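Would you kindly consider the sequence and fold I have copied below?
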Amino acid sequence: MEQMDFAPLLSFDLGPFHVGPTVLTTWLLMALLGGFAGLATRHLDVDRPTPTQAMLEGIVGSMEAAIAAVAPAHATLLLPFVGTLWVYVVAANLIGLVPGLGSPTADLSETAALALLVFLSVHWYGIRDNGWNYFHHYLAPSPILLPFHLLSEISRTIALAMRLFGNMMSLELAVLLVLLVAGFLAPVPLLLLHIVEALVQAYIFGMLALIYIAGALQSQQAHPLPKGEGDSLTPTLSQKAGGASKEP
C-alpha cells in the first residue's frame, strides 16, 4: 500500500518539472490501459463475440445506461469522456493494491488535475452544444449573481479534487494503521475494503462530473435568452448543421 521505496531512484527532473512516483504511476496506468484497449479490440466480431468482447460490451453498456439516466439526449456524446474517466479512476484507485505501488489518486496533484479536466470539459461541452449563448446562464436571473456563479464553479472544482484525494488518502492510512496493529492477520477484509472503496469513489467522481456536464448542456433550457437577444450571437453547432441540411 506504500509508495515504492526506490521511487526516488526512478524520479527525475524534466526541465523545471519534477517527475515523481505519482506521475510515473500515471504513465504506467496510461500505457497499461491503452495497451489493453488495443489488444482487446483488435478482433471484434459481431456474430461470434469472444468472452473478453462480451465483458467489455457489458461494461460499456452499463456506463452508457448510467449516463443516459442523467443526460438521455447526450449519452452517446458523453460516453467517451465520462467512460474513460470512470475506467481511469477505478484503475488508479485499485493500483494501490499492487505491492510497492501507491494510488495516484491519494496525491492531491493528481486529483486536482482530474478536477481541472472536468472543469474545462464542462464549459467545452456547454459551448459545443449551446454556442457562446452558454455563458448567458451566469447572468441569470440577474447579473448581480455573476460573482456567486463564478465562486460556485471554483468551489465545486476544489471540492471535487479534495473529495477523491481525502477519501483515498484516508483509506490507505487506515489500512496501514490496521496492518500495524493487527499485522497480516486480516489481509482479506482489508483488500475487500480497498476494492469496494475504490469502486465507490470512482463512481462518485464520474457521476459528479457527469452531473456538472449535464447541467452545462441544459443551461440554455433552464435560462433561455430573452426574445431576440441571441439572434446576433454565434449560432450553435446544431443550428449550423440544421441550416446546412436545408440547403439544396
In short: Confidence is low (pLDDT under 50) at residues 1-6, 227-248. The two ends are 64 Å apart (CA to CA). The chain has nine helices and two strands.
